[in-house]
Known about the structure:
By secondary structure, the chain is α/β, with parallel strands linked by helices.
Amino acid sequence: MSVPTVDGITKQTITTDRLTTRVLTAGPDDGIPVLFLHGNLSSATWWEETMVRLPDGYRAIAPDQRGFGEADPAAKVDATRGMGDYVDDAIALLDHLGVDRFHLVGNSLGGVIAWWLLAGHSPRILTLTQADPGSPHGFGGTRDVAGKPTTEDFAGSGGGLINPELVRLIGEGDMSTDSMFSPRAALRALVWKPPFIPAREDEFVASLLQVHLGDDAYPGDKVMSPNWPFAAPGELGVNNALSPKYALDVSRLVGGAGKPPVLWVRGAQDLAVSNNAASDPGTWGPMGLVPGFPGTDAYPAQPMIDQIREVLDGYAATGGSYEEVVIDDCGHVPFIEKPDEFDKVFHAVIGGY
């Protein structure tokens, strides 16, 4: 079932040579294109209010990405390509729509995809706005700003990280807060900063429940590991694609041709992407949730914020530019939690190009 949209959003199903999916748009067809890429366990629904708030003359485009929402469930993610499937899907969509150059906006997983787009297609990108993006080095299993693996098999990243109770409740379509692992409870604890609850929370939970489930989708497959926490990444699904095992070669991002300006906006209380992310084994390991934790020297938390800043400093040192904006009293989705503060800096960036 489709999730209802807000006024001003047009919904259509588009088929490219890569993917059939739902695409939401707002603004004039001949407006300056702005591509919005959503995060994990979400869909284009999450961008709707940001899309309709764009200044006059812009055309917002937001697809349900592979594995989410109303994207074709037969289209799987080859995790060994990292974000490659998502990048190719996005470029195919833009080509289908006749879009050459565009502003790019990413959040979380969408931000990781945006790093890959910046590395491979920077001449087409007018500006890049990153709202609490994932690290260019992937999620889990790295120990320093250079993305050095914590173990040789990248244990602690990939599909094996996902709580099976959350997956079970997603499969049951649970809209309640009866369990601390329910989708709604997870969003309230980890995505928006309490006590904030968005007015469209029901729609956001409903879009989460549309994630495609399975060992070839979400959470994806896994490989048992002798290294704590005893699971290494498999080869299918979004969570494995986010593993540092398949991460971007950041030298392509730092040293690539074309240097569109980058705006990095993050919530000061983001628990999903931080130097001690709530879902990082290096963060919850000391709590004893998985026996055998080898200690913080052997398995530290991934310094995600420091990794992002290190990469952007390198980007700036090679001719690019970036601005980091931290929004107080805000979690993982500043465009939903603090829309006025987000729009102020976002609109300023796209308005300058």
